[in-house]
Amino acid sequence: MIGSNLTPSSSLSFKGIIPPGVLDFLKNPDTFLVVGHSEPDADCLGSQIALAHVVQSLGGRAVLASAGPFLRPEIKPWESLFLADPDACPRVDRAVVLDCSSPSRAGPWQAKMTGLPVLVIDHHAGTDRCGEVDYIDPEAPSTALLVFRIYEALGLPLTPAVAYSLMLASCTDTGFFRHLGPAQGETLRMCAQFSDLGVSLQDIHALMTGGQLATNLRLLGNLLGRLQLHYEGRLAYTFEEEGERESLQASNRPSDLLYQLIFTIDSVEMAVVLRTENGATIGGLRSRRTIDCAQIASGLGGGGHVRASGFRTEKPLDQVKTFIFAEFERALGG
Ligand SMILES: [Mn+2]
Fold first, then answer.
1. Which of 15, 44, 118, 255 is deepest in the core (most CB within 10 A)?
2. Residue 256 pLDDT more than 90?
3. How many domains is the chain built from?
């Protein structure tokens, strides 16, 4: 029976139960569209690469798809593996959508999934249960962990490329393991296997934290210079001015570094970073412990995780800021 062999009863380490139907969905000699969200990160892409390998190991064919862009240095080398244009996609029989809280996050690839049997694999809070089969575990620190559980359940051997992909994915979504709370050793045990297979955390750390431009750090400096603390230091707010990135010739905003620095202030419970672009307001929210960022972002048409979320809205920045501050105040009171 499907599922009967998926939870070793003797092991406390294996908390995740793979829902019935997931493995059967994958055990098909079909062509699978393996798709993730736009503006992908390494958890999304690495999980897609590993899942494509699962499909191929089971006798199917996989088309890796991503709308991109591949901006971050650690994901750049993967760009050539992914099809960007849905019009160039061959005929596909079924789709697996990974790391997307909603199919709309797949951008132009969403339309390609219409009418196909879909498997959703994700770890976001509040993910649409829209697949023929859903494997959604909001307690998993990464989508990579869910794909790894599929490997384990199927007894598939890991290749060095898959181990690397899932390691980079895990490092991304766990902030290099520092976001792991208690009883999350499953991720560490998984990554220990990747390390034993020859994956270097040292190299991954250098790739993820290096490659910075001085211009990006100047932008970071400006954002820190504008940092305001509200609600007795519990809410930290800053913003990027429209056109600032271009005028500084910054290639990106070092967001991880920015949030990391903001949370070195002990009083900060939530960090809010806003910017405007072509009339839209784009924001990132991070919380230390209790504030549900995903819920606040969903009120602005966005989504994500409890501790990290984002949104893009047509509402003006001042209105967005007022909304977030009010939601924060309500969350504090509640
Ligand atoms: Mn993820």
1. 44
2. no
3. 2
